[in-house]
Structure formats: C-alpha cells, structure tokens
C-alpha cells in the first residue's frame, strides 16, 4: 500500500520538488497551498487523481487549515508524513518593516506549521505502527541559527520554528511521531529568485552568496535530506534541526 504525505507549500520551490520526488517514489501526496500547482506540473506524475490532490489552503488560517484536513480525513484514515514547506520572506530593516509583514511571517512561518501539525496528529497517529513511526518535517532556515541583517524578522520566525521542533518531538514521542527540520541556506527557488535585490524598493535583502561548496543549493539538495527524515534510516532521529547549507554557517569567512 502506498504511503501518504501532506506537503504544505507544495506548489513551488522546495515543497513542489518534495511532492514531485514523493510521487516518483510511489507516495500518495496531498498538496496544501494558497496557489495551485504551476502549469508545468500538468504531467502524468501529477495528473493521477488517486495519487495527487491539490487543496487550496491558507496554512495561517484556522478555518482554512481545519477544512483542508477534514477533507483529507474524509478520504483517508491515515497519513505517514507531514512536510511543512509553506513559508514567506519579507525583507527589510527591523525598525522599518511594516507591521503587516511581521504579522504575515509570524502567521505563515510559525502558526502555519503548528496548525498543520495540530490537525494532522490524528491521521499521523493512525499512520504510525511499531517500528514505523510517522514523520513531521519542517522547513526551517539557516537564518534561524545564524541571522542576517535585512531579514531579521524572518530569521526570528525560523528560530521560533526550530524551538517548536524540539518541543513537538518530545510531546509527540509517545504517539510514535518523529519531528525534525531541515535548515537550508540559500536555495534557488522563486522565494529567492523573485526577491527585490539591494536596489529593490524598501529592502536591504541580499542573498547569502555562494556557500563554501561554491554554489547555492538546488531544491533537490534539501529534498534529499527531507527524504532521509521520512525514511527507514532515521527511525531514531527526532527533535533535530539539520543545516543543509553547504557549510555557510560553519565558520566566519573574511573573504
Ligand atoms: N529558498 C531559500 O533560500 C530558503 C532558505 C531557507 C529556508 N527556506 C524555506 O523553505 C520553505 C519553502 O520556500 P521556497 O524557497 O520553496 O519558497 P517558494 O516561494 O518557492 O514556495 C513557498 C510556497 O509556500 C506557499 N505559501 C505561502 N504562503 C502560504 C500560506 N499562507 N498557505 C499555504 N501556502 C503558502 C507559496 O504559495 C509557495 O507555493 C519556506 O518555509 C522557506 O522559508 C527557503
């Protein structure tokens, strides 16, 4: 029988690539996103209605998230994994940022994963069996470990998310649900590629630049680690936040 995953933010970037890789591996995938999958997803992989479903869902909204999980619950008794990739970045100096940007990052980046986890726990409990724990994987950020000027509040939201990982891991251990996070450095996704640069209006956003490995990450670099957290070889790993940053935070480089 196929394993089932719910992926938030499954219409773009890391979430979309997670959905694609899981489908290719035979998983049944529910994608929750405010936006539908892009047109280039009209491929046989995404077109099998029994394997892939998109649900319009704002993960920062209680009613919207509850409704999405009710819809899933009406069609399946269990899920094996929840991957929370939905996130937003609004750059700017802390003292200048509009309060609505702060509210948005709090709501999407912290409240969103919390709400999704809350509503998925009954399904995850049904999906976990002795020796085969259910999984929750959050997409955090290296900025939550090593913050950057110009994205201070985003970094704070991801640091808070990392804290939730540890506490949820312990709270859900009895239910045999493992909770971990990846903390990517800069990844080539629309979130980064469509940010206004230093010349952009009202922001001081600058990508971190190349990692010590000489490039920024591709979504697959991050998805490889998400798949590790979903696989049989991480059954004794919970409550961790694993940097996937090519060594960006490992040491200060004067270069
Ligand atoms: N790209 C990077 O450099 C980078 C680095 C570290 C962490 N991250 C994190 O990775 C995750 C994925 O980001 P990405 O780079 O793939 O960005 P992306 O913009 O390509 O994808 C984000 C997805 O989240 C969805 N989304 C936004 N708000 C939502 C909401 N309220 N409800 C449901 N869906 C919503 C968007 O529609 C989009 O499909 C985010 O949590 C982000 O903070 C990204």
UniProtKB/TrEMBL annotation:
Gene Ontology molecular function terms on file: oxidoreductase activity
Domain of life where this protein originates: Bacteria
Gene3D superfamilies: NAD(P)-binding Rossmann-like Domain
Key words, A-Z: NADP, Oxidoreductase
Keyword Iron-sulfur appears in the UniProt entry: no
Annotated TM spans: none
Ketoreductase domain span: 3-187
Record bears the keyword Lipid metabolism: no
Database matches in SMART domains: PKS_KR
Family: Belongs to the short-chain dehydrogenases/reductases (SDR) family.
Protein name per the record: SDR family oxidoreductase
């Amino acid at each position: 029988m196929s394993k089932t995953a719910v992926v938030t933010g499954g219409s773009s970037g890391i979430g979309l690539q997670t959905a694609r890789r899981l489908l290719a591996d035979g998983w049944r995938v529910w994608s929750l996103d405010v936006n539908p999958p892009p047109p280039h997803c009209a491929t046989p992989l995404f077109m099998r209605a029994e394997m892939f479903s998109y649900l319009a869902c704002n993960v920062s909204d209680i009613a919207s998230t509850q409704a999405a999980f009710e819809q899933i619950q009406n069609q399946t008794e269990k899920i094996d994994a929840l991957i929370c990739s939905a996130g937003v970045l609004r750059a700017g100096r802390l003292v200048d940022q509009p309060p609505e940007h702060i509210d948005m990052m709090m709501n999407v980046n912290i409240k969103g994963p919390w709400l999704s986890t809350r509503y998925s726990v009954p399904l995850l409990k049904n999906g976990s069996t002795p020796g085969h724990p259910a999984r929750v994987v959050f997409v955090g950020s290296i900025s939550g470990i090593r913050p950057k000027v110009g994205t201070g509040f985003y970094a704070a939201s991801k640091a808070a998310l990392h804290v939730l990982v540890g506490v949820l891991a312990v709270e859900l251990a009895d239910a045999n649900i493992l909770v971990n996070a990846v903390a990517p450095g800069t990844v080539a996704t629309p979130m980064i590629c469509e940010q206004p640069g230093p010349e952009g209006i009202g922001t001081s956003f600058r990508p971190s630049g190349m990692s010590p490995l000489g490039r920024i990450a591709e979504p697959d670099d991050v998805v490889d680690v998400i798949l590790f957290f979903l696989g049989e070889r991480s059954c004794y790993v919970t409550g961790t936040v694993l940097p996937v940053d090519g060594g960006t935070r490992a040491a200060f480089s004067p270069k």
